[in-house]
Amino acid sequence: MKVLLVDDDPAILEVLGAFLRGAGFEVLEAEDGEKALELFPQADLVILDLMLPKVGGLEVARLIRQERPELPLLILTAKGEEEDRVLGLELGADDYVVKPFSPREVVARVKALLRRAGLREELVYGPLRLLPTRREAYLAGKPLPLSRLEFDLLLTLAQHPGVVFSRERLLEKVWGPGFPGVDRVVDVHIAALRKKLGDDPENPRFLETVRGVGYRFKDLDAPLP
After folding, report:
1. pTM over 0.85
2. At which residues is the DNA-binding region annotated (predicted)?
3. Arithmetic mean of pLDDT, 111-116
4. What is the pLDDT of residues 19-56, one digit of tens each?
5. Domain 123-217 CATH (choose: 1.10.10.10, 3.40.50.150, 1.10.1200.10, 3.90.79.10)
6. Angstrom distance (rounded) from CA 141 to CA 207
7. 156 close to 174: Cβ distance less than 8 angstroms
8. CA separation, residue 23 to residues 111, 125, 167 (Å)
């Protein structure tokens, strides 16, 4: 699971980043607002400092909410910045932490936000079990050997059962914005995933093709064979 950490203080990036990685998260880092806007499409949660160079934190928050209203957003504020904190919450931030802060407290808040957003620490669909923070997958109790991209692709779809993702959206979410790839890249990785899952494209247990649109993870309400 990917957390985007945005702060212009190298010490915060280093220390808080280390705590987040120790908790099992993949950490994306941005030291300014421009970089944050490049990276947030890949993230499952954003930790955002409000005092940023190039593009301010409040503007970054506004643009994130405009593009991805469902994305969990935690803001960092300096002590005494009550007005900015209120503005951040009004723009749709889900929580805030005042500096100086305990990295352990931030990690705990991140986990709480992800739980509230439905991004659980364990996903179980019939014989398939995914552990996002540990980046592990099991099928019928046995470890499922997945590449980084295969795991991210499967997790992206599994976190939103029944939701159709276009190839373009999957390229942006899994490979990142600006990836010089083509739709065929997604098709190749889906085919590899199906092989490892033992998934029949004509009668899938997990990954369904929506012709002319893209792919989706089979709805939780649909019975697994």
Report:
1. no
2. 120-219
3. 82
4. 999 988 889 999 999 999 999 988 989 999 988 999 99
5. 1.10.10.10
6. 19
7. yes
8. 9, 24, 31
